[in-house]
Amino acid sequence: MDIDLIKILVILPFFIIACITDLKDRRVPNKLWIPLIIIAVIFGAIQYTPTYITMLAISLTLILIIVFIMAALQFGGADLKALIIIALIFPVYPETFNPIYGEYSVFALSTIINALFLALIYPIAITITNLIRRDLERPRHIFRAIKKPINKVNDKERVLYKGEYKTLTKQEIETISNRKKTVWTTPWMPFIVFITLGMLTTIYIGDLMYIIFNHLI
Fold first, then answer.
1. Would you list the domain boundaries of the chain?
2. Which positions ≥6 away from 195 have C-beta within 8 Å?
3. DSSP class of residue 33?
């Protein structure tokens, strides 16, 4: 019985739901994480060994430090909880798909590093979109925002308004629509999406930083 594969199949639906919920409502309900804590405890009991507990302590300590830094940088609560859950459920690397990682790699730490690598793709995609559309009249914004018809903007999107990006009320959107047909908006992509993709990358491929520095450079 492949416990690691069972772990992956059990937690993945929760993370997919978290991504969809955050994309839709910009928040993830706390009740989504409670079953995952219970699942982590169950798997911890099943896989209990002194080595497993040691790695759990190391994994959780490192992630709590990162979570503290991310909280100071005002990352969302769902992002922080997701990382803690990953640290609890995967204190050691799942070997199901033979990922590549270093002797001292920690799965949760590799996940956040992979997530940051993947997040770099996002501004590149936005820039390419603006270049294709030839929306270049505001060079400082082509890396972070795209133009969008004002009548398609909702009150959850951040709009360039009076020199800064901010969410607008429906009344403010209506006011702007009387003067402009398009506005610059920052497409909403919650970091938990990159965390989930980073986790899957770590499961299937391994630690991207380790691979780059030890196999490609």
1. 3-120+190-216
2. 15, 79, 82, 83, 86, 111, 112, 115
3. T
Contact 161, 94 (CB under 8 A): no
For residue 200 the two structure tokens come to: 């899957």
Q: What is the DSSP string of 142-171?
A: TTT-EEEEGGG--TTSEEEETTEEEE--HH
- For 147-160, write each residue's pLDDT tens digit: 888 888 776 678 88
Tokens of 95: 């070997």
* Residue in 179, 137, 144 with CA at minimum distance from that of residue 162: 179
Rounded Cα gap, residues 120 and 115, in angstroms: 9
Whether residue 36 contacts residue 85, with contact meaning beta carbons closer than 8 Å, is answered with: yes
Q: What global pTM score does this model have? A: 0.84
51-84 per-position pLDDT tens digit: 999 999 999 999 999 999 999 988 889 999 999 9
Low-confidence ranges of the chain (pLDDT < 50): none
Query: What's the rounded Cα separation, in Å, for the pair 126 and 130?
Result: 6
d(CA 113, CA 105) in angstroms, rounded, equals 11
- Domain 3-120+190-216 is of which CATH architecture? Up-down Bundle (1.20)
**φ, ψ for residue 196, nearest 5 deg:** -65, -45
